Every structure is written in structure tokens, then in C-alpha cells.
Amino acid sequence: MKKLYSLIMAGGSGTRFWPGSKAAKPKQYLNLFGSESLLQSTISRFAKFTSNDNIYIVSGKNQAKVLEEQTTMLPKSNLIYEPVGKNTLPCIGLAAMFAEKENPDGIMVVSPADHLIENDELFKDTVLAASKIADKRDGIVTIGITPTYPATGYGYVQTAEDITGSEKIRQYKVEQFVEKPDETTAKSYLAKGGFFWNSGLFVFKVSVFIDAVKEFAPQLYSDLRKIQAELGMPTFENTLDTIYRAVESISVDYGIMEHARNIYLVEGNFVWNDLGSWESVYLTSKKDENQNAVSGESVIIDSKNSYVSSDSGLIALVGLDDVIVVQDGNTTLVCKRDKAEEVKKVVDNLKSNYKSQFL
Amino acid sequence: MKKLYSLIMAGGSGTRFWPGSKAAKPKQYLNLFGSESLLQSTISRFAKFTSNDNIYIVSGKNQAKVLEEQTTMLPKSNLIYEPVGKNTLPCIGLAAMFAEKENPDGIMVVSPADHLIENDELFKDTVLAASKIADKRDGIVTIGITPTYPATGYGYVQTAEDITGSEKIRQYKVEQFVEKPDETTAKSYLAKGGFFWNSGLFVFKVSVFIDAVKEFAPQLYSDLRKIQAELGMPTFENTLDTIYRAVESISVDYGIMEHARNIYLVEGNFVWNDLGSWESVYLTSKKDENQNAVSGESVIIDSKNSYVSSDSGLIALVGLDDVIVVQDGNTTLVCKRDKAEEVKKVVDNLKSNYKSQFL
Question: Would you say residue B175 has pLDDT above 70?
């Protein structure tokens, strides 16, 4: 096995997690479960099978403070800052340019920082299986999550030929990536079989990925090469800033995965949740006998099926079911559970009214 | 007209108003409507027809700080502190002992500090009408509120003979005081007529009230006389403390009004609400087009018929109707409107768990 790098993408802003997430502390930095943040849990998950020296993180300048506080276990030089967020393709491309300088044959595992994954051992085995294909077949490998219900909130990957052979973990060639479906379509995917949730976890040889950028995003490729040429030079930051601000904002799915031919899928059977809203945090949290998930100081009277999280104060919930209450600093969210997606509207409202003290 | 004193009873602890009310700052000190607290509004209401020198306040020692802050318009010597709360009869009796020293023929108007009253001009006329009867007939006069619906949360006063004569404001002899009724009984009161809500507003000549205490609560009478004998002496506080702690806790309704014969009622047609819970504050607050009553910083999305009050932070309410959300300092209440009475349980829970930092 070639040297294994992991790249954790931690630049998201997580507006659906207000007020837990604020501009300076998005979702990946929150302790939603236990004592580690989602980012720290992601690092721990990789640290079980790769050295900390090989764990890289890409994030935004505006998150530098909290990122450094939460990643004291990593070399500082492994923290890569984008001047601005440009979606996943430029982000991964930038990190690949760093990695190529050291080892173009290295295998890179790309992971979002803000997902919930349980069963670290199976995660490791799945990543290692994906690395093997990436190395042997010069492929770009995605980890596809076995769907447990017809979710409409996730993109799907349709598989083609089964190439599992004697391997323990099932693996396939990929037919196509598909966008988030409506419910009828999602149900048909599950009925038909061969469809997996797109987890955002990718594994590839650095050189293979850079070749794909060259083929499918030639402008980005040439921009990234210009940036790479100044790596370690005093002019680097300036060059990065100038060039990166001008690159196209595009996802790796849309820019590469939907076009490339050498795409494979390894089946992920570990517990996975992209934690898209407080509702998904509620669903994946431990609950008490009234199906309430509670953290921090609280008094719960005559209420059930609710998520109550208090950061520094006390929340009293009386006579209400199916609600989300989150207190963080000077802000409190009170939301019906099935309206958790609308929290984005709160953030929009605060932005348009210049109430940055609450963002 | 004899000299008019007003006595504002401000000793309540208001546990149904947590978290707005805390042990050191009960309901009467809250700015529930506009820029004045309920106590300050009560003082202003009396100040329109009596001098500030004649406005007395009885409260608890534990509320001294906030009371003094909010009553800088009154002479400090007009603030009377009970060592402990003993319900309304000892409270009024104590104040009557102070007043008697100055003017036994004075007329005293007793008012709770924490009610909502609108139309100050009509209030004044009503009080003056009551004072006239109290003076002329040596009676104890209660102001009865004309019921607007069959309330089960208020006590009632049944009237007997109409003694209005040529007066503008209707007045009656009182038949009896009755406890809070069930709904059927309340409906029958309204159908029958002659029933008024017991407002807790009383008017009497000081000497007449003291005579009634002597007749119907002789032990309290003799205790109060002992306290009065040391008024202005260095031993006063000690004597007050020792004796007052031992007196029976009893309401003026139960101890005197239900027994005395010289009881009259003057009809109060001003807007009145005893503000028994956040629900009644919601009902009497100004509302926006979605029937939300909102104060402080907030973002309201897809929610109606709700009360949202934020003291120092911001509350976002998303997708919920008929709720009460109150943030005060380090505490936030989230409550279904029809469960507003259960807020007492939150306070009980915090007490029994020794969480005084939230009380």
C-alpha cells in the first residue's frame, strides 16, 4: 500500500445549525455528541490507521482560530486555508497539489469534517478496501452508504458491474451519480437495488485525481499548477489569494465524478449520517424514556420527542412535543422538529438585518 | 374628604412568572408592558390623585434592593418591610398601624402591585367613590370588576342592595365573597347577575379596619398593637421580627371580608387583569398581524399566536404556534400557552434540585 493521506474538508458554514453554529464556529466544531467536536471525531477516526502527520485539513481563513484550537494534535503545516470557499473540487484540488509535492503516488482519502460515523473499525476496513482499488485500478473510489430508507435529502450513486471477487467488502464499478431524488424516485431506487447514498467520502491516488482535474477542469488545473509552483515561497499566500478568488466554484461530483470513467464504489455499512439539520442530530442522539435528547442544564415537564441543548444557561420546556430548543450564548432557537430546515431562514433574516452579533 | 393614603402590596413572589420573575425580582418589578414595571405603573396610577408622601409600600426584606431602585420617587420611610410574608391580612394590618399613628381617620386604598389596570381616570373616579362610602358609612369597600366572561381563575363578590342613588358609579352592599368557581358555577354567576370579580382592591378608614381586625382576628390585633407600640424606637425591628414571624398567615378576604357586616362594593369598569400567568400577559399584550406579542430581539418564522420575550439575547421561533418563550439572563422558558400554569412546577423542580442559580 502506498502512503495514505487523509484530507478532511472543514470549510463549511452550516447555516442550518444556527445557533449552535455561528460564522466563526460552524457545525464541524460543535460537540454535538459527547466531548469531541465532529471534526475531532473525524480526526480520531483516521488517526486509528494513519499517522497524524498524514492528516490534512482544508478550511477557511475565518475559521483559523477555532480550527487551531481543536487540532493541536496535528502539525500546523497540515492546516491548509482557502482564501474563500469554492466548493469541493477546488478544495480537493488544492490539497492534492500540496500532497503531490511530497508523494504523487500517495493515496488520498477525502472526508467531510461534519458527518456522524459510527463503527470506526468497519470504517477503517472500508477505507482500506477503497484504497486498494484506487491503487490497483488507478481509479477514483467513492464510499457508498447502504440506504436504510428512501431518503430524499441525499444524492445517490448507481452501481454497475460487481467487482467484489474474493474481497470481504462489496465493490462495484459506478454507473452514474444522481442528484437528490423526490420520494417516488427514491423509493424506486431502493426497490430496484444497486443504489447507494453519496457520502462525500472519496479515495484516489493523488496523481490520478490531478489527471482528472486536467482532463475535466483544465482552467482550474492550470490555476492550481500556478499556485503549486509557489508553494513554500514568500509570495505563496498572495498568489493563492489572487488566483483562488477567481476560480470557478464547483463540486467534485459535478466537475469530475459525473464525467470520469474510472469511478468505483465501495459499500459502506457503518452508521452514517450527514447531520444536515438539528432534526438529524435529534434522530441520531441518545434519548431518554420520553424520547427526549437532552444536553446541558434543563427542566423538562410534560414534553416528549424533543431535542433540548443548552450551552451555558438553563432551558425549561413545558407541555410541548416534537420541538428543538438550542441555546448558545446570546441566542436561542425554538423550532418545530419538522421545520428544522427553515433555520436557514433565521440566518438569512439576521444577515439581511445586519444583526451580526447573533451570527 | 379625609386624607387619602394608598397602600401598595408588593411582597408577592410570582413563581408562575419564572424566568422573568426570580426570587430577588418578582413579577411586580418586571417591565411586562412598556418602560415601567407593574409596581411603577401602580404608583403612577395613585400619584395622579394622591401625593407621593401618602403612598406606602409593603414588601419583603429580600426584595429591598429592587424595591428601592424602583421607588426613588417615594420617601424611603414609606417602604415597610415584612420580615416574612404572611398573606394580606397581617400585611394590611401592619400598614394600618403605621397609618393610625399619623391619622386614624385617614382613608386607605389597598392595591396589589402586580395587576394590569387601564384607564387611570376611571380608576381614580372609582377609588374616590369608594373612599366616599368608606368615609360616610364607616365601611370596608371593595372594588368589584364587571366580569366580561365566566372566569374560573378569579374569586367573585356577590352584591345585595343597590345603594347607588345619585352617584355616577354603581355601588352596592355586599352579600358574600365566594372562592374561584368551576366553569358551570361561573356561568351561572354571569347569568344571574350581581356578581363581580374580586380585584383585591380595598378602601377603608384606618380606624374602621383596625376595629375589624380587633373583632375578627383578636390575636393578630394584639400582636400588631405590640409592634405599633415600638414604632420609631431602636427596638422596633427586633420586635417586629419576633412577633411577625409568629402571626397566622391569612388573607384579608378570609380573615375579615367574609365575616364583617359593613362591606360595600363599588363597580370597577376599567380594564383589569390580575396577570396570573404568562398566558394572561399574552392575552393583554399588543399583538402583530400574526397575533404574536413580541418584545426584545427576535426572529419569528412561520409561527403565530405566541408570546416571545427576550431580555438580553435573541430568540428565533420557527414553525410553532401557541407558545410562550421567555428568555431572562441565563434562563429560557419554552411553554405551550395552555400549560402556562405549570411554570410553577419548573420553579419547584429547580428548588428541589438546589439550582438556586436559576431561581
Answer: yes
Let me know the angle formed at the C-alpha of B186 by B184 and B187, rounded to the nearest 5 degrees. 65
Residue B259 DSSP one-character state: T
| Contact criterion met (CB below 8 Å) for A65 and A24 | yes
Task: Supply B110's cell numbers.
Answer: 389597598
The neighbour count for residue B290, using CB atoms within 10 Å, is 13
Residues B189, B183: Cα–Cα separation, whole Å: 10
Average pLDDT on B126-153 reads: 95
A contacts of B320 (beta carbons < 8 Å): 320, 323, 334-336, 339
- The residue of chain A nearest to residue B317, with distances taken between CA atoms, is A334
Residues of chain B contacting A316 with CB distance shorter than 8 Å: 18-19, 331-335, 343, 346
On the question of pLDDT at B23 being above 80, the answer is no
**Cell numbers of A203, please?**
479515495
Query: Contact at 8 Å (CB) between B315 and B325?
Result: yes
CATH 3.90.550.10 residue ranges in chain B?
4-273
Task: Please give the helix or strand (H or E) that residue A65 lies within, else none.
Answer: helix A64-70
- Please state the pTM of the whole predicted model: 0.84
- Contacts of residue B39, Cβ cutoff 8 Å, sequence gap at least 6: B8, B10, B28, B29, B57, B67, B70, B71, B113, B114
List, for residues B319-331, the tens digit of each pLDDT value.
999 999 999 999 9
Q: What is the ipTM of this complex?
A: 0.84
B20-32 average pLDDT score: 86
- In this structure, are residues A67 and A18 in contact, taking their beta carbons and an 8 Å threshold? no
C-beta separation of B326 from B333 below 8 A: yes
C-alpha cell at B100: 393610625
CA dist., res. B2 & res. B107, Å (int): 6
Cell numbers given for A82: 482557502
Using a CB–CB cutoff of 8 Å, tell me whether B1 touches chain A: no
Distance, in Å, from the CA atom of B74 to the CA atom of A333, rounded to the nearest integer, reads: 42
A350 SS3 class:
helix
How many beta carbons lie within 10 A of that of residue A199, not counting itself?
21
Mean pLDDT of chain B: 94
Nearest-Cα distance to chain B for A147, in Å, is 29
Encode pLDDT of B288-313 as tens digits. Answer: 999 999 999 999 999 999 999 999 99
C-alpha cell belonging to residue B354: 438546589
CATH of domain B4-273: 3.90.550.10
Supply A162's cell numbers: 460487481
